[in-house]
Amino acid sequence: MSLNFRFAIVSDLHLALPHTIWDHPSRFHLVEVSISAFESVIEHLTQLDLDFLLLPGDLTQHGEADNHIWLQKRLAQLPFPVYVVPGNHDVPVLMANQQSIAFADFPYYYSQFGYENPQQIYYTHQLLPGVRLIGLNSNFFNQQGEQIGRLDTKQLNWLEEVLAAATDELVLVMVHHNVVEHIPQQSRHPIGNRYMLENASELLQILQRYQVKLVFTGHLHVQDVACFENVYDITTGSLVSYPHPYRILEFHRDNHGREWLQILSHRVESVPDFPDLQQLSRQWMGDRSFPFLVKLLTQYPLNLPLAQAKELAPSLRDFWSTIANGDALMDYPNFPQEVRRYIQTYGAIAKSGTPTLIDNNSTLLLNRI
After folding, report:
1. pTM of the full predicted structure?
2. Which CATH class is domain 3-267?
3. Which of 40, 130, 148, 293 could form a disulfide with 313 if both were Cys (CB 3.0 to 4.6 A apart)?
Protein backbone atom coordinates (compact mmCIF):
# COMPACT_ATOMS: atom_id res chain seq x y z
CA MET A 1 0.00 0.00 0.00
CA SER A 2 1.48 3.35 -1.04
CA LEU A 3 2.15 6.11 1.50
CA ASN A 4 3.29 9.66 0.83
CA PHE A 5 3.60 12.65 3.15
CA ARG A 6 5.64 15.83 3.58
CA PHE A 7 6.88 17.37 6.81
CA ALA A 8 9.44 19.87 8.07
CA ILE A 9 11.99 20.00 10.88
CA VAL A 10 13.17 23.14 12.64
CA SER A 11 15.49 22.51 15.56
CA ASP A 12 17.11 24.36 18.45
CA LEU A 13 15.13 27.56 18.02
CA HIS A 14 16.48 29.02 21.29
CA LEU A 15 13.69 31.58 21.11
CA ALA A 16 14.42 34.67 23.14
CA LEU A 17 12.12 37.66 23.40
CA PRO A 18 14.22 40.87 23.58
CA HIS A 19 13.76 41.36 27.32
CA THR A 20 14.95 37.82 28.05
CA ILE A 21 18.16 37.80 25.99
CA TRP A 22 21.07 36.60 28.08
CA ASP A 23 24.39 37.89 26.80
CA HIS A 24 27.75 36.21 27.13
CA PRO A 25 30.89 37.08 25.18
CA SER A 26 31.62 33.50 24.10
CA ARG A 27 28.16 32.17 23.21
CA PHE A 28 27.82 30.66 19.73
CA HIS A 29 24.04 31.23 19.68
CA LEU A 30 22.95 34.33 17.80
CA VAL A 31 19.69 34.46 19.73
CA GLU A 32 19.11 38.03 18.60
CA VAL A 33 17.70 36.55 15.37
CA SER A 34 15.61 33.82 16.98
CA ILE A 35 12.18 35.41 16.54
CA SER A 36 12.77 36.88 13.10
CA ALA A 37 14.44 33.71 11.78
CA PHE A 38 11.56 31.58 13.02
CA GLU A 39 9.04 33.91 11.39
CA SER A 40 11.00 33.68 8.13
CA VAL A 41 10.84 29.88 8.25
CA ILE A 42 7.14 29.89 9.08
CA GLU A 43 6.46 32.21 6.14
CA HIS A 44 8.05 29.62 3.85
CA LEU A 45 6.49 26.54 5.44
CA THR A 46 2.96 27.91 5.33
CA GLN A 47 3.25 28.11 1.53
CA LEU A 48 3.80 24.35 1.38
CA ASP A 49 1.31 21.56 1.72
CA LEU A 50 2.84 20.19 4.94
CA ASP A 51 1.33 17.35 6.90
CA PHE A 52 3.15 18.32 10.11
CA LEU A 53 6.16 20.11 11.64
CA LEU A 54 8.66 18.62 14.12
CA LEU A 55 10.62 20.70 16.66
CA PRO A 56 13.25 18.43 18.33
CA GLY A 57 13.94 20.53 21.43
CA ASP A 58 15.73 23.61 22.72
CA LEU A 59 12.68 25.63 21.83
CA THR A 60 13.70 28.46 24.17
CA GLN A 61 16.88 30.23 25.18
CA HIS A 62 16.89 28.93 28.74
CA GLY A 63 13.44 27.70 29.72
CA GLU A 64 11.96 31.14 30.36
CA ALA A 65 8.18 31.09 30.90
CA ASP A 66 7.69 34.14 28.67
CA ASN A 67 9.47 32.43 25.78
CA HIS A 68 7.50 29.20 26.21
CA ILE A 69 4.24 31.19 26.29
CA TRP A 70 5.15 33.14 23.15
CA LEU A 71 5.99 29.97 21.24
CA GLN A 72 2.90 28.14 22.45
CA LYS A 73 0.68 30.94 21.14
CA ARG A 74 2.57 31.21 17.84
CA LEU A 75 2.39 27.48 17.12
CA ALA A 76 -1.35 27.49 17.76
CA GLN A 77 -1.75 29.88 14.80
CA LEU A 78 -0.11 27.59 12.25
CA PRO A 79 -2.16 25.78 9.59
CA PHE A 80 -0.51 22.38 10.20
CA PRO A 81 0.02 20.22 13.30
CA VAL A 82 3.23 20.77 15.29
CA TYR A 83 4.95 18.33 17.65
CA VAL A 84 7.68 19.17 20.14
CA VAL A 85 9.98 17.53 22.66
CA PRO A 86 12.01 19.26 25.39
CA GLY A 87 15.68 20.09 25.02
CA ASN A 88 18.12 20.68 27.82
CA HIS A 89 17.59 24.45 27.50
CA ASP A 90 13.82 24.10 27.85
CA VAL A 91 13.94 22.35 31.23
CA PRO A 92 17.35 23.24 32.71
CA VAL A 93 16.19 22.82 36.32
CA LEU A 94 14.08 20.26 38.11
CA MET A 95 12.25 22.89 40.18
CA ALA A 96 11.26 26.29 38.81
CA ASN A 97 13.45 29.26 39.61
CA GLN A 98 13.39 32.97 38.72
CA GLN A 99 14.55 32.23 35.19
CA SER A 100 13.21 28.83 34.13
CA ILE A 101 10.07 26.73 34.32
CA ALA A 102 10.02 23.45 36.25
CA PHE A 103 10.86 20.24 34.42
CA ALA A 104 7.38 18.77 35.05
CA ASP A 105 5.63 21.90 33.75
CA PHE A 106 6.89 21.56 30.16
CA PRO A 107 4.03 19.33 28.87
CA TYR A 108 1.42 21.77 30.18
CA TYR A 109 2.76 24.49 27.87
CA TYR A 110 2.54 22.15 24.87
CA SER A 111 -0.64 20.17 25.41
CA GLN A 112 -1.70 20.99 21.83
CA PHE A 113 1.64 19.86 20.40
CA GLY A 114 1.91 16.20 21.36
CA TYR A 115 1.33 16.20 25.09
CA GLU A 116 -2.28 15.12 25.31
CA ASN A 117 -1.42 13.70 28.74
CA PRO A 118 0.57 16.55 30.34
CA GLN A 119 1.37 14.41 33.39
CA GLN A 120 3.83 12.47 31.20
CA ILE A 121 6.82 14.13 29.53
CA TYR A 122 6.93 11.70 26.60
CA TYR A 123 4.14 10.69 24.26
CA THR A 124 2.99 8.91 21.14
CA HIS A 125 0.61 10.24 18.52
CA GLN A 126 -0.84 8.94 15.26
CA LEU A 127 0.22 11.53 12.70
CA LEU A 128 -1.59 9.98 9.75
CA PRO A 129 -3.21 6.61 9.09
CA GLY A 130 -0.35 4.14 9.38
CA VAL A 131 2.17 6.72 10.66
CA ARG A 132 3.07 7.08 14.35
CA LEU A 133 5.28 9.61 16.11
CA ILE A 134 7.01 8.86 19.39
CA GLY A 135 8.27 11.93 21.24
CA LEU A 136 10.86 11.04 23.88
CA ASN A 137 12.27 13.04 26.76
CA SER A 138 16.06 12.81 27.00
CA ASN A 139 16.49 15.16 29.98
CA PHE A 140 17.36 13.28 33.16
CA PHE A 141 18.35 14.65 36.56
CA ASN A 142 20.72 12.45 38.57
CA GLN A 143 20.92 12.22 42.35
CA GLN A 144 23.19 15.27 42.44
CA GLY A 145 20.57 17.25 40.53
CA GLU A 146 22.74 17.42 37.42
CA GLN A 147 20.99 17.37 34.06
CA ILE A 148 22.25 14.69 31.66
CA GLY A 149 21.03 13.10 28.44
CA ARG A 150 19.43 9.79 29.35
CA LEU A 151 16.19 7.82 28.96
CA ASP A 152 15.02 6.40 32.27
CA THR A 153 13.94 2.78 32.66
CA LYS A 154 10.26 3.63 32.95
CA GLN A 155 10.34 5.46 29.61
CA LEU A 156 12.23 2.64 27.88
CA ASN A 157 9.66 0.12 29.12
CA TRP A 158 6.85 2.36 27.88
CA LEU A 159 8.59 2.66 24.52
CA GLU A 160 8.74 -1.13 24.15
CA GLU A 161 5.01 -1.38 24.87
CA VAL A 162 4.19 1.29 22.27
CA LEU A 163 6.38 -0.30 19.61
CA ALA A 164 4.99 -3.77 20.28
CA ALA A 165 1.50 -2.41 19.57
CA ALA A 166 2.56 -0.51 16.43
CA THR A 167 3.41 -3.49 14.27
CA ASP A 168 1.60 -2.25 11.16
CA GLU A 169 2.69 1.38 11.40
CA LEU A 170 5.61 3.44 10.19
CA VAL A 171 7.21 4.83 13.36
CA LEU A 172 9.12 8.11 13.57
CA VAL A 173 11.04 8.88 16.76
CA MET A 174 11.93 12.39 17.91
CA VAL A 175 14.34 13.05 20.79
CA HIS A 176 16.68 15.95 21.57
CA HIS A 177 19.98 14.18 22.31
CA ASN A 178 21.82 12.28 19.59
CA VAL A 179 21.30 8.53 19.33
CA VAL A 180 23.94 7.76 16.67
CA GLU A 181 27.39 9.38 16.68
CA HIS A 182 27.67 12.45 14.43
CA ILE A 183 31.30 13.34 15.13
CA PRO A 184 34.26 10.94 15.50
CA GLN A 185 34.01 8.83 18.68
CA GLN A 186 31.30 11.17 19.96
CA SER A 187 30.26 8.94 22.87
CA ARG A 188 33.84 9.00 24.22
CA HIS A 189 34.79 12.53 23.23
CA PRO A 190 35.09 14.94 26.21
CA ILE A 191 33.37 17.70 24.20
CA GLY A 192 30.96 15.65 22.09
CA ASN A 193 29.69 13.08 24.59
CA ARG A 194 27.31 15.46 26.38
CA TYR A 195 25.34 15.74 23.15
CA MET A 196 24.80 11.96 23.06
CA LEU A 197 22.24 9.97 24.98
CA GLU A 198 24.16 8.35 27.80
CA ASN A 199 22.32 5.09 27.14
CA ALA A 200 22.03 5.41 23.37
CA SER A 201 22.96 1.76 22.92
CA GLU A 202 19.88 0.65 24.90
CA LEU A 203 17.61 2.77 22.75
CA LEU A 204 19.25 1.56 19.54
CA GLN A 205 18.72 -2.07 20.52
CA ILE A 206 15.01 -1.43 21.02
CA LEU A 207 14.68 0.47 17.74
CA GLN A 208 16.47 -2.29 15.84
CA ARG A 209 14.30 -4.95 17.46
CA TYR A 210 11.17 -3.23 16.15
CA GLN A 211 12.72 -2.15 12.84
CA VAL A 212 12.40 1.58 13.51
CA LYS A 213 14.63 3.34 10.99
CA LEU A 214 14.09 7.08 11.43
CA VAL A 215 15.11 9.17 14.43
CA PHE A 216 15.12 12.97 14.40
CA THR A 217 17.39 14.80 16.85
CA GLY A 218 18.92 18.22 17.53
CA HIS A 219 21.20 19.51 20.29
CA LEU A 220 24.55 19.33 18.43
CA HIS A 221 23.79 22.31 16.15
CA VAL A 222 25.07 20.62 13.00
CA GLN A 223 23.54 19.35 9.77
CA ASP A 224 24.30 15.65 9.74
CA VAL A 225 22.81 12.32 8.72
CA ALA A 226 24.33 9.31 10.51
CA CYS A 227 23.39 5.65 10.31
CA PHE A 228 24.02 2.68 12.60
CA GLU A 229 22.80 -0.70 11.39
CA ASN A 230 19.82 0.67 9.45
CA VAL A 231 18.83 3.26 12.06
CA TYR A 232 19.20 6.78 10.67
CA ASP A 233 19.73 9.66 13.09
CA ILE A 234 18.93 12.85 11.18
CA THR A 235 20.10 15.78 13.26
CA THR A 236 19.24 19.32 12.22
CA GLY A 237 21.34 22.40 12.96
CA SER A 238 20.19 25.25 15.13
CA LEU A 239 18.05 28.06 13.77
CA VAL A 240 20.17 30.56 15.75
CA SER A 241 23.60 29.22 14.75
CA TYR A 242 25.32 29.19 11.38
CA PRO A 243 24.05 28.13 8.86
CA HIS A 244 20.53 28.75 10.32
CA PRO A 245 19.09 25.66 8.61
CA TYR A 246 15.78 23.83 8.46
CA ARG A 247 14.64 20.79 6.55
CA ILE A 248 11.71 19.76 4.37
CA LEU A 249 11.31 16.00 4.01
CA GLU A 250 9.11 13.74 1.92
CA PHE A 251 8.45 10.10 2.72
CA HIS A 252 7.35 7.73 -0.03
CA ARG A 253 6.30 4.09 -0.07
CA ASP A 254 5.29 2.58 -3.39
CA ASN A 255 2.91 -0.29 -4.06
CA HIS A 256 5.83 -2.74 -3.98
CA GLY A 257 6.74 -1.77 -0.42
CA ARG A 258 9.88 0.20 -1.31
CA GLU A 259 10.43 3.13 1.06
CA TRP A 260 12.58 6.21 0.73
CA LEU A 261 12.98 9.58 2.41
CA GLN A 262 13.89 12.67 0.45
CA ILE A 263 15.65 15.39 2.46
CA LEU A 264 15.97 18.99 1.30
CA SER A 265 17.66 21.60 3.47
CA HIS A 266 17.16 25.35 3.44
CA ARG A 267 18.84 28.28 5.18
CA VAL A 268 17.59 31.56 6.53
CA GLU A 269 19.65 33.93 4.39
CA SER A 270 18.64 37.24 5.96
CA VAL A 271 16.37 38.83 8.54
CA PRO A 272 15.48 42.54 8.90
CA ASP A 273 18.28 43.51 11.29
CA PHE A 274 20.83 41.14 9.72
CA PRO A 275 20.57 41.44 5.92
CA ASP A 276 23.71 39.32 5.37
CA LEU A 277 23.00 36.78 8.07
CA GLN A 278 25.06 33.93 6.62
CA GLN A 279 28.33 35.87 6.42
CA LEU A 280 27.85 37.65 9.74
CA SER A 281 26.91 34.44 11.53
CA ARG A 282 29.90 32.51 10.21
CA GLN A 283 32.15 35.35 11.34
CA TRP A 284 30.40 35.47 14.73
CA MET A 285 31.10 31.78 15.26
CA GLY A 286 34.71 32.08 14.10
CA ASP A 287 35.36 35.05 16.39
CA ARG A 288 34.26 32.97 19.38
CA SER A 289 35.92 29.72 18.39
CA PHE A 290 39.40 30.02 19.90
CA PRO A 291 38.66 28.61 23.42
CA PHE A 292 36.68 25.73 21.90
CA LEU A 293 39.45 24.90 19.44
CA VAL A 294 42.15 24.92 22.11
CA LYS A 295 40.05 22.53 24.15
CA LEU A 296 39.49 20.31 21.10
CA LEU A 297 43.22 20.10 20.37
CA THR A 298 44.46 19.62 23.93
CA GLN A 299 41.94 16.96 24.96
CA TYR A 300 41.43 13.33 23.89
CA PRO A 301 42.40 11.97 21.44
CA LEU A 302 45.06 14.48 20.25
CA ASN A 303 46.22 15.72 23.68
CA LEU A 304 48.45 18.39 22.13
CA PRO A 305 50.59 20.65 24.32
CA LEU A 306 48.84 23.94 25.08
CA ALA A 307 51.40 26.02 23.21
CA GLN A 308 51.01 23.97 20.03
CA ALA A 309 47.21 24.09 20.29
CA LYS A 310 47.27 27.88 20.58
CA GLU A 311 49.50 28.05 17.52
CA LEU A 312 47.19 25.88 15.37
CA ALA A 313 43.80 27.15 16.60
CA PRO A 314 43.64 30.41 14.54
CA SER A 315 43.92 28.41 11.31
CA LEU A 316 40.87 26.42 12.39
CA ARG A 317 38.58 29.38 13.11
CA ASP A 318 36.05 28.16 10.52
CA PHE A 319 36.32 24.50 11.55
CA TRP A 320 33.05 24.28 13.50
CA SER A 321 31.04 26.41 11.09
CA THR A 322 32.17 24.09 8.29
CA ILE A 323 31.03 21.07 10.34
CA ALA A 324 27.74 22.78 11.21
CA ASN A 325 27.06 23.46 7.55
CA GLY A 326 27.08 19.71 6.80
CA ASP A 327 28.85 17.75 4.06
CA ALA A 328 32.20 19.04 5.29
CA LEU A 329 35.37 18.40 3.32
CA MET A 330 38.49 19.72 5.08
CA ASP A 331 42.21 19.37 4.72
CA TYR A 332 45.06 21.24 6.39
CA PRO A 333 48.17 19.97 4.55
CA ASN A 334 50.52 22.23 6.54
CA PHE A 335 49.42 20.77 9.86
CA PRO A 336 51.38 17.98 11.60
CA GLN A 337 50.33 14.69 10.02
CA GLU A 338 48.57 13.37 13.14
CA VAL A 339 46.48 16.54 13.49
CA ARG A 340 45.78 16.69 9.77
CA ARG A 341 44.43 13.13 9.73
CA TYR A 342 42.29 13.75 12.80
CA ILE A 343 40.67 16.88 11.33
CA GLN A 344 39.93 14.94 8.14
CA THR A 345 37.88 12.41 10.14
CA TYR A 346 35.29 15.15 10.71
CA GLY A 347 34.65 15.30 6.98
CA ALA A 348 31.83 13.67 5.04
CA ILE A 349 33.99 10.77 3.95
CA ALA A 350 32.73 7.18 3.78
CA LYS A 351 34.82 4.26 5.03
CA SER A 352 35.73 3.63 1.39
CA GLY A 353 37.47 7.01 1.35
CA THR A 354 35.05 8.71 -1.04
CA PRO A 355 32.95 11.81 -0.23
CA THR A 356 29.40 11.00 0.89
CA LEU A 357 27.38 14.21 0.74
CA ILE A 358 24.08 13.26 2.39
CA ASP A 359 23.84 15.76 5.27
CA ASN A 360 21.79 18.42 3.52
CA ASN A 361 20.12 17.12 0.37
CA SER A 362 19.76 13.40 -0.20
CA THR A 363 17.40 10.51 -0.73
CA LEU A 364 17.69 7.66 1.74
CA LEU A 365 16.58 4.22 0.57
CA LEU A 366 15.11 2.73 3.74
CA ASN A 367 14.62 -0.84 2.59
CA ARG A 368 15.55 -3.13 -0.22
CA ILE A 369 12.82 -5.30 -1.68
Report:
1. 0.97
2. alpha beta
3. 293
